[in-house]
Amino acid sequence: MKLRKIHFNLLVIPLVLFSATSTHAQEDWWGPYAPASIDPELPNVLIIGDSISGGAQGYLYEVRNNLARRANVFQSNITRRTSYALDEWPNVLNDHTDWDVIHFNWGLHDLEYEAGSYHVPIADYTDNLDGVGNIIDRFEGIVNANGESPVLLWASTTPVPSGVSVTQGTEGRSNDDVIAYNTAAATIMNSRGISITDLYAGVDTHSNPELLFRSYPDNVHFTNSGANFGNTFLGGLVTTAIDPYVPEAPMLMEGVVGLWTFNEKSVGQVGSDGDPVLDTSGNTYVHNGTIIADISDDIPYVAGNPAAMDGAALRFERGLGGGSTEGINDSVEVPGDVDFQFNANQSFTYETMIRTTQVTGGPAGSDTQGAAPLVQAATGNFWIDDDQPGKVMFSPGFGTKNDAEFSGADTRAKTWSTTAVNDDEWHHIAGVFDAATEMVRLYIDGVEEGATDVSAWINGASWSGTVGAGADEYLTFGSTGQGTAIREFEGDMDFVRISRGALLPTEFYGLSQPVLGDFDGNEIVDGNDFLVWQRDPLTGNLGDWQDHYGESSSITVSSGAVPEPSCFILTGMALLSLGFSRKR
């Protein structure tokens, strides 16, 4: 299969809406499962399956995370039975033909027995797949942008757990029927040369298959990848099947992957709901965020920590009341990305600088009930805790809240500070996971205060996969995003930084003394600082910028040609002159 050529643009990542001849069709077919953005240079992968493949209760998000920057991954919202597919899929295929890989399954809806008959008897099932005008022929008739038919990959139907499997010919689903339908489908796929992703065998031969399934009755669904690893496991099998037909994964960036200094506006100004929060890390992949606030509420920009950084900080409010009382919703959301997703072999560091007097861990129903989230990922968090009020808790996300393998214990690898940080003073907080030592460490103001050995959990049978925030997930600063008062931070936040690697205190951001003339707070005095000063001369003394141009703190910065500061001043004067000439 010919793959699209991949172009890496150092300034802009091409993100466009998926091209389709029918906007209405795109809304109908993809529903909530459409990718947030599409890179037209990458191949398009379509996953077809029932709810086991789709959305929050399926393996779609796991596959999309695994194939980030390698493929655009879609999943349809209209799968159901093969008979339904014969009616509806021609419309999908007419509207969307640019598929490079189609990974498909039908089964659990077909084989369900109800009111004295199967939804789709096995003879009709095989005919729908391989008879006159069948589904496979239609797929093979697609011609994509490369002038080729897509690669077809079949997924076998997953088992029905013993606890909910019924006898064949009785109401519900029987695992014996799953085996029969899988056998019939495999015969067709083998005769047509279509590779099979054997999800049934993958689950059936797992060392502890019951851990993969959700616990409440019905239940053929699998655990979410963030809570356990059923969908992580299935998503890995599907990714392996698709892997040969998409480009190789780009090398992940090392070092700083995101830095938000909250200097978009000057001290005294306010941010409103929807305002941008800029990633100032300077990386190829830019991860800008968005201010989240109630419509009637703004988030003030206040003075940051003068001992460590120049520039502003954001002031978050929380709501009043305990329980499920609605909160103020002050927070910053950053879309998840492979840059913020880590496995047990990848070290990472979260950092922030805060000032607060917030009391946590109060009585149920009170204004002080709950915790104060600082950095909340889809899996893993960084809070001022309620179990140990006023102290910081770092949980990178390895394990689960109620882990069956560990007798229902909370195995999320938490560690706490010994210092309470709600004393109205600025504190630098860093949470570090060191993959080499399998240790989680927590630092307050550069001093290690907590450490936890997480080897038992990350090597346990009940956890597998990744932590952090990948595609279709979010990083949230200042709340959990749940909209409740007991999960909101109240105080000032100067910055957030996320890095790949287990940083040492000497490498932490914002602990060194500020460099004079560093008006944007990125710990190097460069041309961008002049532009910041030009927009707001009250930011600092231009003489400091001239005297210290090119200097940096202990933080490693990118090397390169550094123009003389005079050229920026001359450019600024020229721009001012041009502005005056236009006014005449």
Description:
This protein has 584 residues and is of the alpha+beta class. Helix content is 20%, strand content 21%. Residues 1-25 form the signal peptide. Pfam families: Laminin_G_3. This is LamG-like jellyroll fold domain-containing protein.
> pLDDT under 50 segments (min length 5)?
1-27, 554-563, 573-584
CATH topology of the largest domain: Jelly Rolls
Beta-strand residue percentage: 15-25%
At CATH level 2, the architecture of the largest domain is Sandwich
> What is the arithmetic mean of pLDDT?
80
Structural class: alpha+beta
Helix content: 10-25%
State the distance separating the first and last CA atoms.
Answer: 62 Å
Q: What is the count of helical runs?
A: 12
* The top level CATH class name of the largest domain: Mainly Beta
Question: Which term fits the overall shape?
Answer: elongated
Cα-atom radius of gyration: 27 Å
Largest sheet: 9 strands, antiparallel
Overall structural domain count: 3
Number of strands: 26
